[in-house]
Design a protein that fits this description.
By secondary structure, the chain is an alpha/beta fold. 36% of the residues lie in helices and 23% in strands. The protein has 11 helices and 14 strands.
Length: 336
């Protein structure tokens, strides 16, 4: 048997991948960046793909199962990732395939219905949980935000949450796939809430709203896939909530983003079973522009209209937008 890479423009090769996945009861994930196949002559015996640090679309033809081909595919994909400097690898797969991956050194993070989420670094998620600190006394609430960038809408959500809990755990999305880089977003969130007490800031790393758990947040996918990703992300959060004794989570209603709306819906179904109440609050609005959102701010910036953002963002964000450090970000938005 020989490995071959299946490129995006390889219509015949991709057709064979689709057929193998369908035969094994799997649905093709269109958001992949690297796909390989193990060929036995003209027959595709196994296939696998990855996107960033997540293995996807792994299948072995039933006629070839029991020959260790899944291990061969996973090993080859991991070798390619390692060559790219990516050593922390995730898999989400069906329940009946879990044993195949645990035998290859992957550890389960969470399982939900028919989906299991695993990683190749033993105890890495437990180490992340430990890094969050100890549970605090009183009512603990949480917000997870990307803040791309931090707006008065985000500030409104934080203030609302703090009026309904004693301690607020504020998770800032670590994934660096937004217009505003991670370090800038973290800086703007912390500066924009520096006058408020009892906020504990946390990074999400690869465990919340990331390309591993919730790629649909960053890349448009079908509603079915987005719902599955959102449910998985919510299940991961439930373990974080158990560690920090979080009993309340706060989100803003989402009239524009389908993926975020599906995420909120998934949390409404999942979190209460783990003792976490979800509160969805109306979004803050501004007289001239209506609902305040980061996407609105980015749109105005892309039009070169920095002054128009003044009533939409805290002074700390506005000062940054007028600084030299913001010039590359704004130029990129303007140039599309």
């Amino acid at each position: 048997m020989n490995f071959t890479q299946i490129y995006k423009n390889d219509r015949y090769g991709n057709k064979m991948v689709d057929e193998l996945l369908s035969k094994e009861g799997l649905e093709r994930d269109n958001n992949t960046e690297y796909t390989i196949a193990l060929m036995d002559g003209d027959t595709m015996a196994a296939t696998g793909s990855f996107y960033k640090n997540t293995l996807r679309c792994l299948a072995v033809d039933s006629a070839y199962q029991g020959q260790g081909l899944m291990a061969t595919i996973v090993s080859e994909l991991c070798s390619e990732l390692f060559s790219r400097g990516i050593f922390h690898v995730f898999i989400y797969t069906k329940q009946d395939a879990k044993d195949s991956f645990t035998s290859l050194g992957f550890d389960e993070i969470v399982s939900l219905d028919d989906v299991v989420f695993l990683e190749n670094k033993k105890s890495a998620f437990d180490d992340y949980l430990e890094s969050l600190g100890e549970a605090l006394e009183g009512i603990n609430g949480a917000i997870v935000m990307n803040a791309n960038p931090f707006t008065l809408g985000h500030r409104y959500l934080v203030e609302y949450a703090m009026n309904h809990c004693d301690n607020l755990h504020l998770f800032i999305v670590s994934e660096d796939m937004s217009a505003f880089p991670r370090k800038v977003r973290e800086k703007l969130v912390k500066e924009g809430t520096s006058d408020l007490k009892n906020i504990i800031y946390h990074p999400t790393e690869s465990y919340l709203v990331s390309s591993a758990t919730f790629p649909s947040y960053f890349i448009k996918e079908s509603s079915k896939v987005t719902k599955a990703h959102a449910s998985l992300d919510a299940a991961v959060f439930s373990r974080i909530g158990a560690k920090l004794n979080i009993t309340k989570r706060f989100v803003g209603e989402e009239p524009y983003s389908e993926s975020t709306a599906l995420y909120n819906s998934a949390m409404q179904k999942i979190l209460p079973s783990f003792g976490i109440d979800l509160t969805i609050i109306p979004r803050k609005a501004e007289d001239e522009y209506g609902i305040i959102s980061a996407s609105l701010v980015r749109k105005l910036l892309s039009e070169g209209n920095i002054n128009a953002t003044k009533d939409l963002v805290p002074i700390t964000t506005y000062d940054f937008l007028n600084s030299e450090n913001a010039v590359p970000i704004i130029n990129k938005l303007v140039n599309g």
